[in-house]
């Protein structure tokens, strides 16, 4: 072959030929390629003219490859596969990393930040597994998890404090229209207390109003913190939540912090990952990003 591949037919024509050779039908080939049947036929005519031989037999019931066309199609398919493989190696697929979080952590903290992560790290395909069920690193293919509690979290696992638990009471500003937020235990009695599965209200009330042994406010209970927060946003009552989960709603005016005091808890949110981690370099990038987000929140 001469230098520079001067005799090489159009690569676009060769691609069209490979598709037509597979389908033996101009219409199906056009659908796969996203062009018209006329454009497909024109490419095949041009390729046959440049080669000086027929690649297909036009029959009443469709197309058939000539002997030359059959031999040529096998070689062209192999050549295009080599070009495809070389191109994919040159532009590797993004690294995949799965992070396990609770639904509330996902919706109220992680998801609002994912756009910024994608912009900074377009080469990392971050997959979020949000579930109340405790995900397993091996069976669920999880690379890193956010877990609430106290370490250790299990054999073979590393952990690092990500975010302390700072519980605040929040409500819609409209809930207190005309009367102001409650500042006493008696004032709190007239509002609905919105509980989540953690049920921090008894501990919170005991810390704020230690002289009141029993509170008689009405209650509504949810299995997820995010649902209690949404109920508070909709003016149904007062919810307790980690400040990091409601900071955005407070800043946007959807919620207000009812009391200045916050309840500190000995349990916290930790990053947890296997000691023998897969994709250690990618995992390091994600951990660094999560740490910075926690600092900024």
TrEMBL record:
BP terms from Gene Ontology: DNA-templated transcription; positive regulation of biosynthetic process
Family matches, as Pfam families: HTH_1, LysR_substrate
Keywords assigned: Activator, DNA-binding, Transcription, Transcription regulation
Domain of life per record: Bacteria
CDD domains, sorted: PBP2_GcdR_TrpI_HvrB_AmpR_like
MF annotations from Gene Ontology: DNA-binding transcription factor activity; sequence-specific DNA binding
UniProt key word Chaperone: no
Domain named HTH lysR-type: residues: 9-66
Name by which UniProt lists this protein: LysR family transcriptional regulator
Phylogenetic placement of the source organism: Bacteria, Pseudomonadati, Pseudomonadota, Gammaproteobacteria, Pseudomonadales
């Amino acid at each position: 072959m001469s230098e520079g591949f001067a005799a090489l037919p159009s690569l676009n024509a060769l691609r069209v030929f490979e598709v037509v050779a597979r389908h033996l039908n101009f219409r199906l080939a056009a659908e796969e390629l996203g062009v018209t049947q006329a454009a497909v036929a024109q490419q095949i005519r041009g390729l046959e003219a440049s080669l000086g031989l027929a690649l297909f037999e036009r029959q009443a019931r469709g197309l058939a490859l000539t002997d030359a066309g059959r031999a040529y199609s096998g070689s062209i398919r192999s050549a295009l596969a080599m070009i495809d493989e070389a191109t994919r190696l040159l532009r590797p697929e993004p690294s995949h990393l799965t992070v396990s979080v609770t639904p509330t952590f996902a919706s109220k903290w992680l998801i609002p930040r994912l756009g910024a992560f994608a912009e900074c790290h377009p080469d990392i395909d971050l997959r979020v597994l949000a579930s109340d069920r405790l995900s397993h690193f091996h069976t669920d293919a999880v690379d890193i998890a956010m877990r609430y509690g106290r370490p250790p979290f299990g054999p073979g696992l590393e952990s690092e404090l990500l975010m302390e638990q700072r519980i605040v009471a929040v409500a819609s500003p409209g809930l207190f229209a005309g009367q102001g937020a409650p500042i006493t235990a008696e004032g709190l009695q007239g509002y609905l207390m919105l509980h989540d599965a953690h049920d921090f209200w008894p501990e919170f009330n005991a810390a704020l109003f230690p002289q009141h042994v029993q509170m008689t406010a009405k209650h509504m209970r949810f299995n997820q913190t995010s649902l209690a927060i949404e109920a508070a946003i909709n003016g149904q009552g007062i919810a307790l939540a980690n400040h990091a989960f409601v900071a955005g709603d407070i800043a946007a005016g959807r919620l207000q912090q009812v009391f200045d005091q916050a309840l500190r808890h000995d349990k916290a949110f930790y990053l947890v990952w296997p000691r023998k981690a897969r994709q250690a370099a990618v995992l390091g990038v994600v951990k660094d990003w999560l740490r910075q987000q926690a600092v900024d929140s």
